[in-house]
Amino acid sequence: MIRVANAPVSYGAFELTVGVLPDVPGPEQVLDAIAAAGYEGTELGPLGYLGGGETLGDRLRRRGLLLAGAFVELRFGDGDLAPLAATLDLLEGFNAQPILCDRGLRDGEVDLDGVAHAVELARTRGFEPSFHHHMGTRVQTPGEIDRLLEGTDVALLLDSGHLTAAGGDPVQAARDWRDRVAHVHVKDVRLSVLEATPTWDDAWRRGAFCELGTGDVDLRGFFGQLGAYSGWIVVEQDWVPLPGEDPSPQIEAQSRNRRWLAEHVGL
């Protein structure tokens, strides 16, 4: 079964904004918007942002939402799995997937033994994680993803936008890696924004990720190659709110994203 979720990052709430920037929408507003747009679930966002335990469970139940996954950044190989352990503690009682990601550095190859240790910890706690390839990390390009898949048995989170931004073809990726895909982030991206800015961070902050169907990703082809995939499809349209910026247009964009999936790929 395929379920469709959104994530707090689409509403400006993520690790680099919550508690740092003003005017970031709060958890109640974000969850209300996700439910009103017709999504079935949400990803967790920053640890503690949506609450934990009974608070988190109650917030989700009141809106008929499920928890799809939880993003965890790690510096693989340094032995520090405390962020993962804390996330697994919060996920107890929820059928959600830990999403492993390399901490944002481009300084050589990711430590595959470190990835294996993180996967082992998750499995000993009863969770099956996936790995999120991501711009600005040591698992960014198609070649780096291939190395990860060949050197570990971790499942893949396939992200259409991050792969396109890294020079990959998400249609081919969905075809070639479909047997390893256990979680999907659907994003669209404007390559013109990447080409006009000096760094990925600049492009990302200037709205490189755009509404579905308005960028350069072949989303219909991407979904056509996912085959018998069963799991979460999570819409993400990263947004960094400026001081005093009204979140209403971004909230409305998430409703349009949900309608795009229904109208164009039948989800």
What's the arrangement of strands in the largest beta sheet?
1-2-3-4-5-6-7-10
What's the CATH H-level superfamily name? Divalent-metal-dependent TIM barrel enzymes
Q: Give the C-alpha Rg.
A: 17 Å
Task: State the order of secondary-structure elements, H for helix, E for strand.
Answer: EHEHEHEHEHEHHEEHHEHEH
Determine the fraction of residues in helical runs and give it as a percent range: 25-40%
Runs in which pLDDT lies below 50 for 5 or more consecutive residues are none
Keywords:
about 270 residues, alpha/beta, TIM Barrel, eight-stranded parallel β-barrel, 11 helices
Question: Can you put this structure into words, describing what you see?
Answer:
This protein is α/β, with parallel strands linked by helices and 267 residues long. It has one domain: TIM Barrel. The chain contains eleven helices and ten strands. It has helices spanning 27-36, 53-63, 82-91, 112-124, 142-151, 160-165, 170-176, 191-195, 200-205, 219-224, 248-265, and strands at 3-6, 41-43, 66-74, 97-102, 130-132, 155-159, 181-186, 188-189, 209-210, 232-235. The strands form two sheets. Strands 1-2-3-4-5-6-7-10 form an eight-stranded parallel β-barrel, surrounded by five helices. Strands 8-9 form a two-stranded antiparallel sheet. The longest helix has 18 residues, at 248-265. The radius of gyration is 17 Å and the shape is globular. The model has no long low-confidence stretch (mean pLDDT 96).
